[in-house]
Amino acid sequence: MQGVGFRPFVYALATALDLSGLVGNDVHGVFVEVEGSATRVEDFLTALRRDAPPLAVVERVRTRQLALTGARGFAIAASTVGGERETLVSADSTTCAGCLAELADPADRRFGYPFINCTNCGPRFTIVRDVPYDRPFTTMADFPMCADCAAEYHDPADRRFHAQPTCCPACGPRLRLLDDRGNPVPVDDPVRAAAQRLRAGKILAVKGLGGYHLAVDAGNEAATGRLRSRKHREDKPFAVMVSTVDDARALCRVDELAATLLTGRRRPIVLLPRVGDASVAGSVAPGNRQLGVMLGYTPLHHLLLAALGGPIVLTSGNISDEPIAYRDADAVDRLAGIADGFLTHDRAIHIRTDDSVVRPFDGRESVLRRSRGYVPEPISLELPFPRPVLACGAELKNTFCLAKGRRAFLSEHIGDLENFQTLRAFTEGITHFRRLFDINPLVVAHDLHPEYLSTKYAHDLAGVELVGVQHHHAHIASCLADNGVAGSVIGVAFDGTGYGSDGTIWGGEFLLADLAGFERVAHLDPVPMPGGAAAIRAPWRMAAAHLNAAYADAPPAGLAVLARNESSWQPVSAMARRSVNSPLTSSAGRLFDAVAAILGIRDSINYEGQAAVELEQAADPGETGSYPVEITDEWPIRLSGAALVRAVVADLGRAVPVPVIAARFHNAVADAVTLVCATIRERTGVSVVALSGGVWQNLLLTSRTMISLRDKGFTVLTHHRVPCNDGGISLGQAAVAGALDRAH
Ligand code: ZN
Ligand code: ZN
Ligand code: FE
Known about the structure:
Elements: H1 6-16, E1 20-26, E2 29-35, H2 38-50, E3 74-76, H3 97-103, H4 147-153, E4 175-179, H5 190-199, E5 204-207, E6 212-217, H6 221-231, E7 239-242, H7 245-249, H8 256-263, E8 269-273, E9 290-295, H9 299-308, E10 312-316, H10 328-335, E11 341-345, E12 357-361, E13 364-369, E14 379-391, E15 401-410, H11 420-437, E16 443-447, H12 453-459, E17 465-469, H13 471-483, E18 489-499, E19 505-513, E20 518-524, E21 527-528, H14 533-537, H15 539-550, H16 560-564, H17 566-577, E22 584-585, H18 588-598, H19 610-618, E23 637-639, H20 641-653, H21 658-684, E24 688-692, H22 699-711, E25 715-717, H23 729-743
Helix pairs in contact: 5-9, 13-23, 15-17, 15-18, 15-20, 18-19, 20-21, 21-22
The structure holds zinc ion (2 copies) and fe (iii) ion.
One zinc ion binds at residues 95-96, 98-99, 117-118, 120-121.
């Protein structure tokens, strides 16, 4: 990568070992020539990997013998240009320890300066306009370096050697405080003034690395509630930013892995189990056992956290599901009705990049939203792409993927494409990535859904080979690529919605799959979705559909879900029965919705997946009971949702507590998955199971299923580098297109 301090590091290392030679950059990466004693050269090669600077990624080291030159001394060679580019742009990185020390040192010339950075840290991807990664091609172009900064920049021994965004109070960006209408408020210290306003319960829009956040004092119930109502975000949990791991421990259970995720250079939001007496306002994450926590990652965050002295709710700067604001004028326009003021600055954000979301799972990091801090670092794959590929991704939680060689570049989280701004981010993002990574796709992969805007985008491209990839095959392929596996697996793709090869809506699928193809060997019994998309927003409609499927005559009298929705129940049921505007679905997500509604947890939702999330949260993790599972002995196998629904209703009738029923339902789904997989294994001999699709964000379900499958001797693959939800679809599409291309 460029600008990560690798050449100065090599220079220092070679000099210390008394080796002669040179180090330089070319289009393939870094080249080094060293001359000296054999043991010292060995030491050099060892240290090259072991001690590389924090932002450098050493993918591989290739060595060969050269003739001795006898030259003395070590030099940094000038960069060569031209040829096909292979050097990479880094992801944005949290403020390093060196910069934090300077930030807090009254004698340092950058004391308290909110834009301090160096070769080891600071903004990267979010400020890059073009390649090569040089200051004139970043949003720092507007800030000519002062003499002091320039001297550091040109000194190979300095921590800021070739640090493109380096700056100081004399030459760099400045902080400003604005009122609720975007007019400047003259204050001596914008950070202190902002902290005072937060302490007084105000809502502030704070400009971050990849966009604007909305901030309130996390301990202030009234302010948090006000933020919810102004943002029209009724229930979806907010994330909280704290200064240190110890502060995080006051809110959540933080084990060693969680601490590593919190303190790493990427600084994602980490979902962790909250402690009982967590000192945050109740409306931060209502009814949720988890809390999203992150540590400050910009100098401004550190200054603000120190000035406030407590955790801050930091949520994306938008109204409900819109993309976050990142351009200054637009932010003032859109957030004026929500924020009481703006803490902003004049360094432009070039690419809107949301906070990433991860959680520790099964001993490693599991990424749920891959964006700031991760993007554009490539996912390296086992098998190469014969021709460059563009994969257009899904409709919701869209990401796209450009791939060549062994590298797949996944985009930042684009969001739901139904919105004009996200669609523009999608098309402009593809253009940007093509330029940054010099990839001219010849193969373009897309979903089979004809109405996805990402599919339409693909169909509008000329002169490329199109590859349609079934949604759930893409999920499973994504999980395979994520784990570096190519071979045959039983892919269990459970999600909300995906276009099936037969034109119905799939989502509870068992696919015998490899990267190149799949066979649908089992699935949930389809039921109608009364009203189509309306049934997604109103889980009680799915309850009606599943109850109708479970009871030939009529569901038992006295069901509360029926009583609550009595006026619409008959027309909706009739619609489903007559197949009017009621597409068939085998979706597992919709089964979870139905059970959530039957249990009285949620009849209609305010955010995607809410009913299933709340069903999981309601479940008593101590309950080990389950329900009998029914499968057919046809091929493909059909798994009966009706049997599960009848068991749930029977328990309700016996007044079994809801948390117990919710847990038994989870356990039964885990048992069902295991039974179906065991039946498929008997017939096919395949004993590796890949779990993918948004339903597997359910931690209770995933852990129960893994335990149950491993118990039966299965090897289980889950996602870790890319999301199991539709954010990972583009990688799967690319992997499928690459495999088909290799097979040609
Ligand atoms: Zn630094
Ligand atoms: Zn300067
Ligand atoms: Fe999906």
